[in-house]
Write a structure and sequence with these properties.
mainly alpha
Length: 290
Amino acid sequence: MIAKRTALDHEAIHRAAKSAAHTLRGALCRLRSTRNDHYRNFSYIPTTTLSFGKRSRERMAEIYSRLLEGMIANGIDRAAADRLYRMLEGFADYGFPESHARSFALLTYASAYVKHHEPAIFTAALLNAQPMGFYAPEVILHDARRAGVLVLPIAVNASRRHSDVDDAGSLRLGYHLVRGLSAEHASAIEAALPRGPFADLVDFATRTRLTGEKLELLAAADVFAPWFPARRAAIWEVRGLAERSRRGTLGRDMSTDEPDAHLATLTPVEETRLDLWSTGVSRRSRTILG
């Protein structure tokens, strides 16, 4: 746990509390130090009788008089003893064993270090651990962009199942963010890549064996942007492919000469809504590239 300095000068309280208070930088935040060091050093009450297993403010009130008497007997003036009691009283409601405090301190330090020095890697790790129950992916990406991370969208032949960081240090979003796409589906896409990049939508559908519904979810997420100028065009092609697939192998592989479809262009607001619906994150940022 990160130590927090307070106005309390731990040297001024009493030499008996010096070791524990020095470790804590004046902030009482560890149960073992409180129970063992403080009570042992400046109270006559044996530490074995001060179990915090069933602590409460009522229990603290019961030992208040004896605790202060013990501190005063050990040379602590009453004002300082009362201040120390008020600090210890906080553990009647909540307290951390030292083992937990040290574990959280290490996790906090390591997380802060990686976030500061490798923000793209830190962000990828958070995204891949979703759902965590804390911050949504959009919030995590917004924080990453503010830290200068270049975020690249989910894109066919470039993305993998999980979000990762490329050689240039940019964060590439993964298929795991696509709504309705299971880990099995994302893995199927990744498993097909070693045979070479997908040539087109038909090649993609054939090698991944994804259903028309899943292909449409990918199109809605603009995953096929390298092949289509707009996601509505991709959705149109996916539905045409699905129609041909219903006619069997011959229908799926046949090429047709159809007039170009004139599809309305999505407005920026519609683009953002579709982004958030399909992936939970928005591409509307100056720090995200196609």
